[in-house]
Amino acid sequence: MFQRMRIPVTLLLLAVMLTGCGSTNADGTLDRSGIWGKFVGIVSDGLDYFYQLTTDYGVAILIVTLIVRIITLPLMIKQIRYTKVMQQLSPELTKIREKHKNDKQKINEETMKLFQQYNANPLAGCFPILVQMPILLALYQAINTNKALQQHEFLGILTLSSTQSIENIILAVLAAGTTFLQSKMSMVNNDANTKMMLMIMPLMIGFFTWQFPAALGLYWIFSNILTIVQTYFTKGIKAPDQPGAAAPAAGGKKK
Q1: Less Cβ crowding at N or C end of the chain, within 10 Å?
Q2: Is the Cα torsion angle 144, 149, 152, 157 positive or negative in sign?
Q3: Which residues, including other chains, have CB under 8 Å from residue 209's CB and lie 6 or more apart?
Q4: What is the pLDDT of residues 24-49, one digit of tens each?
Q5: How far apart are CA 21 and CA 24, in angstroms?
Q6: Can you tell me the distance from the alpha carbon of 189 to that of 172, in angstroms, rounded to the nearest whole number?
Q7: For the whole model, what pTM was predicted?
Q8: How far apart are CA 232 and CA 220, in angstroms?
Q9: Rounded CA gap, 191 and 101, in Å?
């Protein structure tokens, strides 16, 4: 259930970007007043700083993406451990669904009991993507208020402010493909709902990449690639010792 929440939560927060809410003045420049304005200002200044070092705003976006991935790495490790726990619990969850297939409330109750027994946090799978959403929104506003970035071309071929262009179609395909791959790598089970989400999420990400400035698509694609690499090299992480795992053994003393 909580894994399925990632899609509506992601789409809702991405849709917020369309409002361009917040930190702009009447002349289109960045309004740095307030906590949010200061946060967007930090992102914008970071892009300008790395542009001065690399002379390419596209490369600056890639550097910012790498920094975000490093910051969210501890959360990703928690997500991987949660996935390992869910893989271990998958047979038990299947038994619960089969046993109470006509009682959704009972399924939810038994599922939560199982999570508590094995100290599994269902929200762990959502944390990395939730942390990235404010960065995406701040990046969106930084692009809209940075005239130099809007006019810049990444590697001389991709206008970072372009929307609904041929370049955006290419980025949309890449964003959808990398989203599918990284979702597939972190997939816990193969039930019908999971398979449906595995198809819907990439399509939605591809649509938003086509609609939004190319700079955001660049960020999302590189972030997905880093996630794929991190997932590959951290797949050896084991599930944490489960304090609840001893519970069945305790019951065995009654034999």
Answers
A1: C
A2: negative
A3: 168, 171, 172, 175, 176, 216, 217, 220, 221
A4: 666 667 777 788 888 888 888 999 99
A5: 8
A6: 26
A7: 0.70
A8: 18
A9: 14
